[in-house]
Amino acid sequence: MVVVHKDGARGVHFRRAGPRQKVYFEADEVQAAIVTCGGLCPGLNTVIRELVCGLNHMYGVKRVLGINGGYRGFYARNTITLTPKSVNDIHKRGGTVLGTSRGGHDTKKIVDSIQDRGINQVYIIGGDGTQKGASAIFEEVRRRGLKVSVVGIPKTIDNDIPVIDKSFGFDTAVEEAQRAINAAHVEAESVENGIGVVKLMGRNSGFIAMYATLASRDVDCCLIPESPFYLEGPGGLYEYIEKRLKENGHMVIVIAEGAGQELVSESVQSMGTQDASGNKLLQDVGLWISQKIRDHFAEQKTLPITLKYIDPTYMIRAIPSNASDNVYCTLLAQSAVHGAMAGYTGYTSGLVNGRQTYIPFYRITERQNHVVITDRMWARLLSSTNQPSFLDVKGDHEEKEEEETLHQVPNERISKVTSDNNEISHVYPAAC
Ligand SMILES: Nc1ncnc2c1ncn2[C@@H]1O[C@H](COP(=O)(O)OP(=O)(O)O)[C@@H](O)[C@H]1O
Ligand SMILES: O=P(O)(O)OC[C@H]1O[C@](O)(COP(=O)(O)O)[C@@H](O)[C@@H]1O
User: Fold this and answer.
1) pTM value?
2) Comparing C-alpha atoms, which of 127, 205, 218 is closest to residue 177?
3) Which value, in Å, is the radius of gyration of the alpha carbons in the chain?
4) Which atom of ligand 1 is found nearest the CA of 38?
5) CATH of region 2-167+321-367+398-408, choose from 3.90.950.20, 3.40.50.450, 3.40.140.10, 3.40.1380.10
6) What ipTM, to 2 d.p.?
7) Closest CA to 142 of 123, 171, 114, 164
8) What per-residue confidence (pLDDT) applies to 122?
9) Residue 222 β-bridge partners
């Protein structure tokens, strides 16, 4: 199949007509819509810009609508017309020019609105919840027999979307986290027995905390949701803090927001509530752990500490994307456009093993991406920080087994984890 650029000269040739090829449009038939849902992430505006410019510059598509305020914007809010001119500078700003929201996903109303507005290409930018919503829209579109492409673009600052190599905005988040870690380090080393605590985002997945720690080298301890820890006794956090302070005079702790939630719930009454999308609301583990450390050393009276707690979470999420994320956003958006213009639907555009691919929605939504604590990256972090593995929390036998895995990391195990993580068997190579 051949799709020709508007200038004809640089035609894009699609040699493979894949099984998902269903809805093909001429450029002047296309009425596209773009929506952003869920939490903010650096790069959202870049993706919007490149979708609009990609549609227009590569295919001559002139009609592109922006849906205001997330999914509910399809039926409850106004739309805006997006042109290459109106989006020209938006990538320099954080956030999303379209606005976003949680909750408000009413599949029938959304598809009614798509039909009423004559939309035939929908580009949906968001995380795992958003992709589930996109999948529901795709199924409803199919049930009604509509000629509409539904395309997802994965967004998550937590990097918790499976299959893809990494999410856009993640590099920017890790880079920005360095500023907070550096501040914590400067504060901590300026006083006797100084401790800097930095909380980073990561509801269920500790990727930002892990990569920010590895990048910084100033972090002495990184705590993530995937690796349970404990405070008291041998091998516990208090013991390690005391050791580090005696050795080094100061230390920095990075904690992902989803870490240690079971410990916080034990000591603070759980709010037990959810946000509008059904995500569990977390307790502030950064505040909690800071207070626990202060109380512990105040009680001990042996080591007078000074602790500074820094919470840069929303500052990190709200900045514009850096250069490498800008390039990544451009590739993702252009690839998404090529796929829809080639007639594909029901897919998320993503990078897998360095290749642009079209991934069926069900592959993206069936599970979350987590840090594998028996994998090499976490072992590297433990070696880099020299922090305890906190495996004492389990029985002696289990601990021994896990320790062996961490230190030896057999190749068999790695290749299994890698292939599980990437799940490329049902992912189609992108159109170009
Ligand atoms: N299972 C689901 N089915 C349909 N829509 C969903 C589902 N889960 C979440 N959504 C919708 O997707 C949007 C974003 O979800 P949310 O979990 O807040 O963020 P993210 O997509 O970043 O994970 C919300 O409008 C929410 O209502
Ligand atoms: O305060 P908000 O806007 O609900 O966002 C907080 C959450 O958003 C996140 O950045 C994840 O966002 P998504 O659910 O949109 O992927 C989490 O790290 C954080 O817990």
Assistant:
1) 0.88
2) 218
3) 24
4) 19
5) 3.40.50.450
6) 0.98
7) 114
8) 98
9) 254
